[in-house]
Amino acid sequence: MRRAPRHLRHRCPRRAWRGCDRSARALDREPSLAADADRREGGRTRPGARAVVSVAASDCDCIVLAAGLSSRSSGHKLLKPVAGRPLVRVAVDNVLAACRRAIVVVGHEADAVTAAACPEPAHSAARRATADPDRVQIVHNELFATGMFSSIQAGMRAVRSDWFFVVPADLPGITPAIYAAVASAAGAAAESGTPDGRNEATSLACIPFCRGQRGHPVLLHRSLIAPTLAQPPGGGPMRTLLSRYPVHRVDLDDSPGIVADLDTDEAYAEYLREHHPPHTDDLQAR
């Protein structure tokens, strides 16, 4: 597999995410993958050439959005149990089964969410944000009250991979197989190019849909970091920003979990009834 060009290979200091802003600003030119392929051919595009891009979920970081106020749920929704684990831990475990790292952005009730999100015994290391060996990094978004966009920005400062996912932590139905499917679709879209064989308009984002409804996880190329960080923290939404760039749509009509967030008590109860019904012995014991 061809390595990404040097200007796209971003490394974040081990001690924390400090210093990432400068690297992100270096991406202001927003180079396309197609242009990178052309440069590797000495600035000439071969007749009929297509960009060869392999995107694997296992090479991607994933920003897990866990900073919200949980205002539509009684109690903090991310701390509610799902099959014996806090909801946020289910999301992190699914990410770690598919992706290279989980970047968990916390804000509201940050200490409790951090403790629930970090796989034991990695909690203390992850909380210090030096979690390379543990594959979990905690990022605190002090501006979480301004909305999800500021949490995406905070998570982007910690991204190291060329491609990365963004996913809210309240979608337990997003399985490792879904991450793999979205990454595979992004790679296929990059290889396909345009109908006449030119490598133009390579997608910088891949968004899954289920029966026409937009879902998660969203896969982004790191050239989108700089324009995102250039926006005010209360800006967004991310959908508006992505409308300016080539985006690939992948239909996952048999994966309703990509749109089934547990934002309310009713949604949480319905999910438990459907996916984790109580055992007959438990019912008889009541």
Layout of helices and strands:
Blueprint: H1 20-25, H2 33-40, E1 61-66, E2 81-82, E3 85-86, H3 87-98, E4 101-106, H4 110-117, H5 123-127, E5 136-140, H6 148-156, E6 163-168, H7 176-192, E7 205-210, E8 213-214, E9 218-221, H8 225-229, H9 238-242, E10 247-251, H10 265-275, H11 280-285
Parallel strand pairs: 1-4, 1-6, 4-5, 7-10
Antiparallel strand pairs: 2-3, 6-9, 7-8, 7-9
Task: Give an overview of the whole structure.
The protein is 32% helix and 15% strand. It has 286 residues and is of the alpha/beta class. The protein has a single domain (49-272), classed as Spore Coat Polysaccharide Biosynthesis Protein SpsA, Chain A, CATH 3.90.550. The strands form two sheets. Strands 1, 4, 5, 6, 7, 8, 9 and 10 form an eight-stranded mixed β-sheet that branches. A two-stranded antiparallel ribbon has the order 2-3. The chain is globular. The termini are far apart. The model is unreliable at 1-52, 122-132, 194-201 and 280-286 (pLDDT under 50).
Unreliable runs: 1-52, 122-132, 194-201, 280-286
Named CATH architecture: Alpha-Beta Complex
Quaternary organisation of the protein chains: single chain
Content-based structural category: alpha/beta
The total count of helices amounts to 11
Dominant shape: globular
Global Rg? 20 Å
Estimate the strand proportion.
Answer: 15-25%
Find the CATH superfamily: Spore Coat Polysaccharide Biosynthesis Protein SpsA, Chain A
Summarize the main sheet: 8 strands, mixed
Assigned CATH class = Alpha Beta
Tell how many strands the DSSP assignment holds. Answer: 10
Helix content: 25-40%
- Average pLDDT metric: 78
Distance between the termini: 58 Å
**If you consult CATH, what is the topology?**
Spore Coat Polysaccharide Biosynthesis Protein SpsA, Chain A
What is the H-and-E element order?
A: HHEEEHEHHEHEHEEEHHEHH
Total domain units: 1
